[in-house]
From TrEMBL:
Location (main, coarse): cytoplasm
Site, as annotated: Participates in the substrate recognition with KAPA and in a stacking interaction with the adenine ring of SAM: Y45
Protein name, as recorded: Adenosylmethionine-8-amino-7-oxononanoate aminotransferase
Required co-factors: pyridoxal 5'-phosphate
GO molecular function, one term: adenosylmethionine-8-amino-7-oxononanoate transaminase activity
Pathway assignment: Cofactor biosynthesis; biotin biosynthesis; 7,8-diaminononanoate from 8-amino-7-oxononanoate (SAM route): step 1/1
Reactions catalysed, as given in the entry: (8S)-8-amino-7-oxononanoate + S-adenosyl-L-methionine = S-adenosyl-4-methylsulfanyl-2-oxobutanoate + (7R,8S)-7,8-diammoniononanoate
Enzyme class: transferase
BP GO annotations: biotin biosynthetic process
Keyword Transferase: yes
Binding-site positions, pyridoxal 5'-phosphate: G144, S145, D278, P341, T342
Domain of life from the UniProt record: Bacteria
């Protein structure tokens, strides 16, 4: 998740150590932790030594983060971020805790080469069954970025195996984000992804213009033609088109019409290019459909999943492909997928992921996402009248307030904390995607905090 390296801007702090209650405050313990943190620990997109003062979290339960010491009188903050889209069931959920404990009692990890185990097999079968169309072969890896690397490798290897090695470039549209390892970075938005920093080093990919904004907006005919034309012009050198369907997340928090995803599917089919949909952020219900591709009625050749896969408990991601992609790879002189990370299929993560999917599918996720969306729509409406706010958008359980300037992250974070809520705005967007079990009162509180953050940021 790209974000500025500006400090969280924590308010004046007390002296509670992690794990302590106010009764056993030890003066200086939190200060010591933060001093060590600044000296030794890289944070996302952070400088070294660190310059920020993050809030110290000692535990998390339900939709609340419990801090080691109070901020603005709040020992707990309501989480508006679901830990970057992942904690859809909140924290410390008894079903997920039980699954993790039970699996720990059996084994936390064994290698996946030459061995297999029930949690990974059941999870893969489950994903094959619930993802769109004929997506059925599952590669389990450790993080979203790696899932995208694997997707790219599948596509390149597919074409190489079919005797078409020239098809090795990728096409995407501007405004995307696909992770921080090398191939994903090459299809991130060139400006937001800081391509200038890597010029000459990153693979040069093909960029279409960013999709026009608006989930419900009528599709722009000129843009549809632009997509078709770009795929057609580069098809001879394209292994795949890689995009986030319907929601561009960390590249800018913008929604677009599903018609553009459909257009890409058609263009890819027409011109012999594979389509990779990156649903690492949108997968598992966040947009109101189990997968955002369903809004477009499209099955990609390769689908990337992560984040909410384990309910945010452990790092695991999945790259799921169709038989056509797998068969292509199998026809090569090296008829195997050339990838095999140490922690592939990790049993602990797979067991929790299985439990998380059970929990999701046995509950009313759709009703909850709809309810949260309605609460955000109501609660964020006043933001539209704030000076500097250019748009307010809600889709599924995602709310975005956009400003006409870069958010002052420390000021916005402080404003949200004052309202008892954890937010992490970036660029020009104050945004939220709360856990699905967030109740109406907390949704209203989160929305009020977004308004306060937008006003002060
Ligand atoms: C759409 C998308 N793809 C890929 C990634 C990278 O995932 P990870 O941070 O787990 O490597 C992210 C992370 O924000 C994402 O939103």
């Amino acid at each position: 998740m790209p974000e500025p390296s500006t400090p969280a801007g924590a308010p004046p702090r007390g002296t509670l150590p992690p794990g302590a209650s106010p009764a056993d405050a030890q003066p200086g313990a939190v200060e010591e932790l933060l001093a060590l943190d600044r000296r030794h620990v890289w944070h996302p997109y952070g400088p070294m030594p660190g310059r920020s003062t993050p809030f110290v979290v000692e535990s998390a339960s339900g939709v609340r983060l419990r801090l080691a010491e109070p901020v603005y009188g709040h020992r707990e903050l309501v989480d508006g971020m679901a830990s970057w889209w992942s904690a859809v069931h909140g924290y410390g959920h008894p079903v997920l805790d039980a699954a993790a404990h039970a699996q720990l009692d059996r084994m936390s990890h064994v290698m996946f080469g030459g061995l297999t185990h029930e949690p990974a097999v059941r999870l893969a079968a489950r994903l094959a069954g619930m993802t769109p169309g004929d997506l059925e072969h599952v590669f389990l890896s450790d993080s979203g970025s790696v899932a995208v690397e694997v997707a790219v490798k599948m596509c390149l290897q597919h074409w190489r195996s079919l005797g078409r090695p020239a098809k090795r470039r990728l096409m995407t549209w501007r405004g995307g984000y696909h992770g921080d390892t090398w191939q994903p970075m090459s299809v991130c938005d060139p400006e937001g992804g800081m391509h200038h920093l890597w010029s000459g080093a990153l693979p040069r990919q093909v960029f279409a213009d960013a999709p026009p904004s608006g989930f419900d907006a009528a599709p722009d005919e000129d843009y549809l033609a632009h997509l078709h034309e770009t795929v057609a012009r580069h098809a001879h050198e394209l292994a795949a088109v890689v995009v986030e369907p319907v929601v561009q997340g960390a590249g800018g928090m913008r929604f677009h019409s599903p018609a553009y995803v459909r257009a890409l599917r058609e263009a890819c089919d027409e011109h012999g290019v594979l389509l990779v949909l990156d649903e690492i952020a949108t997968g598992f219900g966040r947009t109101g459909r189990l997968f955002a591709a369903e809004h477009a009625g499209v099955t990609p050749d390769v689908l990337c999943l992560g984040k909410a896969l384990t309910g945010g408990y452990l790092s695991m991601a999945a790259t799921v492909c169709t038989p056509r992609v797998a068969e292509g790879i199998s026809r090569g002189t090296v008829p195997v997928l050339a990838h095999g990370p140490t922690f592939m299929g990790n049993p602990l993560a797979a067991a929790v992921a299985g439990a998380s999917l059970d929990l999701l599918l046995s509950g009313d996720w759709q009703g909850n996402v709809r309810r949260i969306g309605e609460g955000l729509r109501t609660g964020l409406a006043p933001a539209a009248a704030l000076p500097g706010v250019t748009e307010v958008n809600v889709l599924g359980a995602i709310g975005v307030v956009r400003l006409d300037h870069e958010v002052d992250v420390p000021a916005a974070t402080r404003a949200a904390a004052r309202a008892g809520v954890w937010l992490r705005p970036f660029r020009d967007a104050v945004y939220v995607m709360p856990p699905y079990l967030t109740d109406d009162e907390d949704v209203a509180r989160i929305a009020a905090a977004v308004c306060a953050a937008a006003e002060e940021g």
